[in-house]
Amino acid sequence: MKPHHVKIARKLITLRLYNKLRAWRCKWHFALWDYCLTHAKSAQISFYSKKRHQAARKEYYYAKRLLASAALLFTFICCAPVPAPIPAVQVAQADSLSQWNRLKMAIAMTESMFRTDAVGTKHDSGILQITPIYVADVNRITGCDYDIEDAFDTAASLRMFEALQAHYNPERDIDKAIYYHNKSKSYKRRVMENLAFIERYESFRQAVINSESK
After folding, report:
1. Domain boundaries, the chain
2. CA of 110: how far to CAs of 104, 105, 132, 164, in Å?
3. What is the CATH topology of the domain spanning 99-213?
4. What is the pLDDT of residue 61?
5. Mean pLDDT by 10 residues, the chain (214 residues)
6. Nearest-angstrom CA–CA distance, 111 and 104
7. Global pTM exceeds 0.85
C-alpha cells in the first residue's frame, strides 16, 4: 500500500471514530477525545500516526474514568440523604437541697404534711402551722404587718420563718431552729425522724437525676 493510501486509511479510521462518538450524542465524549488526540504524549508524531492514536486512547480512557469517578462522587455528596437532626434530650440539671432547706421541708412535713390549708387547735395555720403569737413576734422583729391569714400563703410563711430564725438563730443551728419554731419536747424527735426521711428521699432523687445525665 502506498504511503498516501495509508494516510487516507488512517484518516478514514479517525473519521469513523468521530462518527461513533457523535452517534452517542454526548458532546463531552467528542470534546474529550479531540482534546486527548491533540495533546497526546506523542504530539511530535503525525496527526494520523498509529502511536499518536494509541497515546490519545490511553489518555481518553483514563480521563473518562476520572470524570466518571468525579461525577459519582459529586452525585454522592449532593444527592445523599441528609440525616434528620437528633432531637436534643433535655436532661434535668442536678440540684441539691441544702441542709437548711431540708430542715424546712421536714418541719413542713411534721406540721401539716405539706398542706397549705391546715388549721390546728391553737389557730396554728398554713403549711408551717404558724400561730398568732408567732406572727406577732415576727411583726415586732421586722416591723412588718403580717396577719394570721398570711400563714396560708407558702411564700409568706417561709418569709416569717426566715425572719424569726435570723433574729434568734442567725447561725442556723438545726437544734435551735427546731426549738424556736416549736418548743414542745416531742416535736424535735418527730422533726428529726422526718428530716432523716427527707435525707433518704433527696439521696435517691439525686441518684435518679444523675442516672439520666449519663
Report:
1. 3-79, 99-213
2. 10, 9, 19, 19
3. Lysozyme (1.10.530)
4. 65
5. 51 55 53 57 50 61 66 62 54 68 95 93 92 95 94 95 96 95 92 95 88 73
6. 10
7. no
